[in-house]
Amino acid sequence: MSLTITRPAVRNPGQDRGGAAAIGARPTLEVVGLKKSFGTVEVLKSVSLQVAKSEMVFVLGRSGSGKSTMLRCCNRLEEPNSGDILLEGEKITGRGVNLDRLRRRIGMVFQSFNLYPHLDARGNVTLALRKVLKLSRDEADARAITALTRVGLADKAANYPSQLSGGQQQRVAIARAIALEPAVMLFDEPTSALDPELVGDVLGVMRELKQDGMTMLVVSHEMAFAREAADRVVFMADGEIVEEGPPEELFGNPQHERTRAFLARYSQ
Amino acid sequence: MTNLDRFIETFLNGSVLAKYTPSILQGVWVTIELSVLIVVAGTLWGALLACIRAYRIWPVSFLIVIYADIFRAVPPLVLILLVFFGLPSVGITLSSFAVLFVILGLTLGAFAEEIIWAGITATDKGQWEAARSTGLGFTQTLGYVVLPQAVRMVIPPLTNRAIAITKMTALGTVIGVPDILNQATTAQSFSGNASPLTLAALAYVVLFLPFVILSRWLESRFAWKKG
């Protein structure tokens, strides 16, 4: 009996994209054979995926395809039934993992923003800095202002979420996540709850994060943005990855019938 | 003597009022002391139990629910009499003040636990997820994120209940706590005149009206912050 760990045959994205990561470099985030069922419903059927350092990977798929569940398994807000998640080569699934230590290295942005309504924008950003990273109030404030400046909202530091537009709230939520300087950011339909005219601001921030080298895994329906900004696009259906590739290939010449059907529906 | 004169003589008798006002003022202090102690201890106790229940350790939660249900079901007067007259038989003697404080504090605690628990369960699940996703632990999330929102949400029912329970300090009269009502009934029986009871009613209004107004202020203040 050998103890060799068999890896599924997933291409290293860095090899294709030439530049994002060196050949053979360890992916920042690696999902290996992830399975998840809710009761008798199998939501994820052995999903494997890699995100290289500084890569932006978009996950597309109809609602119910398992893409959000997959994303939520990556920081274990959802507990997978089997399979592994590796963060910078370190296994973060299974027992004995300190979830709180792990989660500060994985930023997450939610569809419904989930800002703390009783704290102002600065308080939203500094809470984890002070209570998790144990920074002093001054250090935390300085880092919060830096993060809010990156999302273009330094002047809104003293505003409560109820005094901000949806787009501003989502940008504060992004600031809250990036202030912890995570190794990877997960975006769970970050623009789905926004009025169309506010979507652009959030996507603009995401574009800048990418330019600054942030590693990102994004579940979203923003096709145009995916086409323009993503390094790689993954299409999921019924709990499986049906097709993946660079955006120009996946959008321009989809190989799979289900991908074509999905793209036809959404590009109307 | 006209009807009006008789009315004034009975309920607003100047000489009786002058004579017994000092003792009723003493009663006011006792009622204030008790009320503050009951509100502070009862609310904190209820909040503590609601937080413990949030950990969902079922035997512990079960005990908390049993406690809350019993204290919400039994009239406080029954418990006051039971403890005050029963405990000395088993060798525990508590002052009437202490008995009143403990029973009403526990009663408010039972209601406060249920009310704050309702606030905790009504707090959006996304708040938990957002906080935990930044690395905050369960206890930190509860303390810094969920509880502040839960308490804001339940301030109206909580203040209503606190007012209702603190008014029950008048029950202390039956076990001899020298509160407002006790002083007034004593004065009433000595003087044979109802004016001290009028004064007592007035004292309760003066005492509890600011409390009621404060609760309205709290409600509007926190309603505004949430937007």
From TrEMBL, chain A:
Keyword ATP-binding attributed: yes
Boundaries of every ABC transporter domain copy: 29-263
Upper lineage: Bacteria, Pseudomonadati, Pseudomonadota, Alphaproteobacteria, Rhodobacterales
Keywords (A to Z) from UniProt: Amino-acid transport, ATP-binding, Cell membrane, Membrane, Nucleotide-binding, Transport
Name of this chain's protein: Amino acid ABC transporter ATP-binding protein
Predominant localisation class: membrane
Membrane-topology annotation of the record: Peripheral membrane protein
UniProt-recorded Gene Ontology molecular function terms: ABC-type amino acid transporter activity; ATP binding; ATP hydrolysis activity
GO cellular component, one term: plasma membrane
Record carries keyword Coiled coil: no
InterPro entries assigned: AAA+_ATPase (IPR003593), ABC_ATPase_HisP-typ (IPR030679), ABC_transporter-like_ATP-bd (IPR003439), ABC_transporter-like_CS (IPR017871), MetN_ABC_transporter-like (IPR050086), P-loop_NTPase (IPR027417)
Assigned protein family: Belongs to the ABC transporter superfamily.
Domain of life: Bacteria
Cellular location(s): Cell membrane
From TrEMBL, chain B:
Main location: membrane
Gene Ontology MF, one: transmembrane transporter activity
Gene Ontology annotations of biological process type: amino acid transport
UniProt-listed CDD domains: TM_PBP2 (cd06261)
Gene3D superfamilies (alphabetical): MetI-like
GO cellular-component term (any): ATP-binding cassette (ABC) transporter complex
Topological type in the membrane: Multi-pass membrane protein
InterPro entries: AA_ABC_transptr_permease_3TM (IPR010065), ArtM/GltK/GlnP/TcyL/YhdX-like (IPR043429), MetI-like (IPR000515), MetI-like_sf (IPR035906)
Transmembrane segments: 28-50, 62-85, 91-112, 162-181, 201-218
PROSITE patterns: ABC_TM1
Pfam families in alphabetical order: BPD_transp_1
Domain ABC transmembrane type-1: 28-215
Subcellular localization(s) per the UniProt record: Cell inner membrane; Cell membrane
Keywords: Amino-acid transport, Cell membrane, Membrane, Transmembrane, Transmembrane helix, Transport
Family: Belongs to the binding-protein-dependent transport system permease family. HisMQ subfamily.
Protein name per its UniProtKB record: Amino acid ABC transporter permease
Organism whose genome encodes this protein: Paracoccus alkanivorans
Source taxonomy: Bacteria, Pseudomonadati, Pseudomonadota, Alphaproteobacteria, Rhodobacterales
